[in-house]
Structures are given as C-alpha cells and as structure tokens.
Amino acid sequence: MSVKIRLQRHGKKGKPFYWIVAADARAKRDGKYLEKIGTYNPNVNPAIIDLNIDKAVEWLQNGAQPTDTARAILSYKGVMLKNHLAGGVKKGALTEEQAATKFTAWLDEKAGKVTAKEDGLAKATADAKTKAFEAEKAVNEARAAAKVVVEEEVIEEKAIEVTETIEEVVAEAETKETTAEDKKEA
Q1: Is residue 130 domain-resident?
Q2: Which CATH number characterizes residue 26's domain?
Q3: For residues 37 and 59, is the Cβ–Cβ distance under 8 A?
C-alpha cells in the first residue's frame, strides 16, 4: 500500500481549511485517511499551521511520500529537516544531541522570521490606519472650513438683504414725508 501525506479540504466555499493527513494513495482527496497529522489555515496572514512534527517524521521514515504542497508545508515547519537529521543519526554522522541542537537552532531562527513578518504586517496595518485617519481628519477640516465660508457668505447675503430692506424702508419713509410735506404746502 502506497501512503501519501496530503491535504484534505474542509471549510466552506471561498474559505478553505485543510487537514494534513496520511492516506492511502488510492483514496479520494477528502475520503478515508489513516491518520490526521495536523491542520493548515491559509485564510490568515501568516497562515496558521498546526502540525505534529514527530508523527510526520514517523510517517516519512515509514515511506510515506508527501505531495508537493504537503512537502512545502512540512519543510516550512521543519519536518523535512528533522527527518534528514534523523537519517544522519542512523548513519552515525551525528549524535542525538547534535541533531537536537541543530533542530532547535533552526526552530529559533524560523520563529524569529515569523515574528518579524507578523510585526511588519502589524506595523503596516497600523500605518494604513493612521494614514486613513489623517486623510479623514483633513477631509473633515476642509468640510468645516467650507461650511464656515458658506455660513459667512449666507451672513453677507442676509446683511445685504437687510441693508436693502432698510434702504427701501428709508426710501418709503422719505417719499411719505415728501408727500406729507407736499400736502401741507398745498
């Protein structure tokens, strides 16, 4: 029986979620599997990979062949390196302690890279939020300035209307006075 380490798709349409499984090569993609090794969630940045490294190494040593995507995930999590180091221990090129120290050093370096990426993404989102806030603030200030200008124009128009009505009232009063004076003289 040929065993493959591959991804089994779960989740809803447009939001995939994968199980990393060891399955018979003849089984359907989402069908029967021998053992679930981990999960892979590509919907977040960076992707979340939860993997039982020891089980994956055990399957690789028993002859399981990973698919291309599964190989990339296993390599990313260090399973392929651990399998390689285990082969070196079997051949006598390394001791268990040397292999363990090399693997932990690699894990620490990888963790540093992942945290750097997470920090960079968090900083980028924070920068985007501050830029959006500044842009919104500028737009609001422009609106407020435009509103003040419009209010000043309205006040000027009302002042002009009031002066015009005052002038009309004064003109009417003057015409009434002149007509009253004309009537007195006559």
Answers
A1: no
A2: 3.30.1320.10
A3: yes
Classify residue 47 by its DSSP letter: P
The domain in which residue 7 lies consists of 3-94
- Distance (Å, rounded) from C-alpha 42 to C-alpha 123? 21
Rg (CA), the chain: 40
Is residue 23 within 8 A of residue 3, CB to CB? The reply is: yes
C-alpha closest to that of 17 among 47, 60, 54, 37: 47
DSSP 8-state assignment for residue 52: -
CA within 13 Å, CB half, 107? 13
What are the tokens at 176?
A: 């009434």
For 23, residues 6+ apart whose C-beta sits below 8 A from its C-beta are 3, 4, 6, 8, 31, 32, 33, 34
Residues 55-113: tens digit of each pLDDT: 999 999 999 999 999 999 999 998 898 888 888 888 888 888 888 898 899 889 988 98
43 and 22 Cβ atoms separated by less than 8 Å: no
* Number of domains comprising the chain: 1
pLDDT tens digits for range 17-71: 999 999 998 988 888 999 999 999 999 888 899 999 999 999 999 999 999 999 9
| Residue 79 located in a structural domain | yes
Instruction: Quickly tell me which residue has 């501050």 as its tokens.
Output: 130
- Is residue 151 assigned to a domain? no
pTM for this entry: 0.65
